[in-house]
Amino acid sequence: MKAILVDDEMLALRYLEKKLVVNGQIEVIGKYLDVEEALEAVTELSPDVIFLDIDMPGLSGIEAAELLAEKAPATSVVFITAYEEYALKAFELNAVDYLLKPVEDERLSRTVLRLSSRMQSRMQSKQETEENRPAMLRCFQIMEFDLDKPEAIPWRTTKAQELFAYLVHYRDSLVRKDVLLELLWPEVDVKRGNTQLYTAVYQIRKTMDALGIDIRIVSFEKGYRLELNGMKLDVEEWERGVMQEKEIRPDNLDRHYRLLDLYRGDYFAEYDYLWAESERERLKTIWLRHALAVAEWLDGEERRTEAVSLYYRIVRMFPYSEQVYFALMQQYDKLGEWTSVDKWYAELEHILQTEFGADVSETIRTWYDGRKPGKRTV
């Protein structure tokens, strides 16, 4: 394995280099006192690992690790620190390991073994990753990658998860750092908030790298831009499909059913992000219009059982919609199942009274009274 070492103290660099030479499994191809010079060298030298001091003047090791994840995502990071509290931060950054100064031989050997195991694991999984790359990022209900089956994303922190979701929401657009700080870390000072932001971006990049996902977060002076790089997004696929398949026919009904199924739940519903609320409602309204159109087409084709099944689904999504309850009652009436009509009328009446202190609309009440057994109008 090839490594570069970064520390602002020359004695510390020489000491670590000597330890690595004795270990014999890592070749030191560069030593740097300046972290920015080291970052420039990474692109040219392509090291397997960078041993990086956290407590550096100017650009800190934490900030450098975030930039490194963009320049060379395959390069592993081992943090060097004289302070135990920084060691915990190293693990938050998803570093391979951390070493406390002065570095001990036995502890260094464990780190090298961990690096070796990680490299072997990457080599073994590289081909599998290429062949089984997830085809879609799902944002309906829960955020996960999907190929043959859903794959949960192993987030290190909830902040990294929300940051990724927010960048996906504003994909291909520049998102300002100050906006992200106000959204995710409003209670901390700017310096600490920036450190938290760098850490979260670093975690996201490492998570994508570990999953073999070619989603990139591009850094700018004032912010970040997320690029999907060909990864499909269920929200885009679904909305595009609904817009294209406006007419419902027997030959494309299966396509409409697949679109209804692609909407697994509300947009980011599992996380209840307030910033997603307007988009959540917009998409939900589109789904309602589409579902009602399919149900009405089924009704027109006298496919009553299928229509009832779909109206059930719509009621679960929109439990306060009189329109949907009424449509379901009408379907059961056409099927001659008055017990079910009575049940759903009572359910609607109960919900309106309990939740809103309101009565069933006069239109529905008049229809219901006129359809009761013995009172039916022709």
Which labels suit this protein?
elongated; Sig_transdc_resp-reg_C-effctor; 378 residues; transcription regulation; DNA-binding; alpha/beta; 4-stranded mixed beta sheet; phosphoprotein; Response regulator; 12 strands; 15 helices; Arc Repressor Mutant, subunit A; Rossmann fold
In words, what does this structure look like?
There is one protein chain. This protein is of the alpha/beta class and 378 residues long. The chain folds into 4 domains: 129 residues, Response regulator (Rossmann fold), CATH 3.40.50; 92 residues, Arc Repressor Mutant, subunit A (Orthogonal Bundle), CATH 1.10.10.10; 53 residues; 60 residues, no CATH class. The protein contains 15 helices and 12 strands. The strands form 3 sheets. It has a 5-stranded parallel β-sheet with strand order 2-1-3-4-5, sandwiched between helices. The protein has a 4-stranded mixed β-sheet with strand order 8-7-6-12. Helix 9 runs antiparallel to helix 10. 30% of the residues are buried.
Summed up:
Helix content is 57%, strand content 13%.
CATH superfamily of the largest domain: Response regulator
- The succession of helices and strands, N to C, reads EHEHEHEHEHEEEHEHHEEEHHHHHHH
Give the biggest sheet: 5 strands, parallel
| Number of structural domains | 4
Mean of the pLDDT scores? 87
Report the portion of residues in β strands: 5-15%
Number of strands: 12
**CATH level 1 class label of the largest domain:** Alpha Beta
Please work out how many helical segments DSSP would assign. Answer: 15
Largest sheet strand order: 2-1-3-4-5
CATH topology of the largest domain: Rossmann fold
Radius of gyration from the alpha-carbon trace, in angstroms: 29 Å
